Amino acid sequence: MRDKVALGYLLAFLSALTGAVRYNLAVFAHDAHGFEYVSFLAFALIVGLVCSTGHVLATRGPSGFVPLRGRWKQALLYGVLMAWGTLSSFLALNYLNETVVVSLAQSNILFTIILAVWLLGERFTRLEWLATTVILAGWFFLRPWQGGGQVIGFVIVASGMLSSAFSTVVAKRGVAGIAPEVLMVWRNAVALVVTGIYVFNKNPVPHWNAATLIAGIAMGITGPYLHGLFFLQALRHIDAAKAALTNRIQPAIVFVLSWLLLNKLPGQDEIMSAMLVVVGAFLLALASRRR
Which domain holds residue 193? Predict the structure, then answer.
């Protein structure tokens, strides 16, 4: 029993690690080779879609996709909401440090709880009020009232967090019962279409070379594929709240990798913002276990 629990936490940590690596790979391609963030994401989504589709076909066969046929409207809405949740984080990298972007994205649990209060009539607990206050304090350190790139990046990430929160509601009500692995394929496919439209309209000029090609393949494997797969595997050994709680260490991993591999550090205000948001997200995850 203990071995299974330990394996669950290890898989949840690997999910956080692979989720963090994708951001560092995107920043590497952008800073070192002038690659536009979303263009790089589009290529990674192609790789991730191939990997995740192959995984479902190998484990479930073509019949694994049949449940999507009867609930295609709900699945489409879920895919679009999740697609913007993914795309927004990479758009925000144009305005905010990657550590801050990942930290803000981790606070999407706040929007999920707000929707639960609004749609399901649930109430905030004292711990959730405390966590909300800590997260709002973290947002305060970004000083969005000053305008400029900070506020643009904040608004982009906030809209993505809200979109991800709505996707959770849709997943529970509209596409419940569909295998998570299948939803992962669907999410990658819709995200690729949405991202492809953006890239086509912007018409960026990519700077492909061996380094960016390897980084793009690595990002596609770690982000759209392994990140979700490790998390789904972790859920077989530990409950969702514990897995989500472990996943909150993503910003710390991004911070360390940015420092060690990219020689990049956020400013003092950004570090304080990231720390407060992560602490608040941890508190919310703890509170969710008591519901």
Answer: 2-289
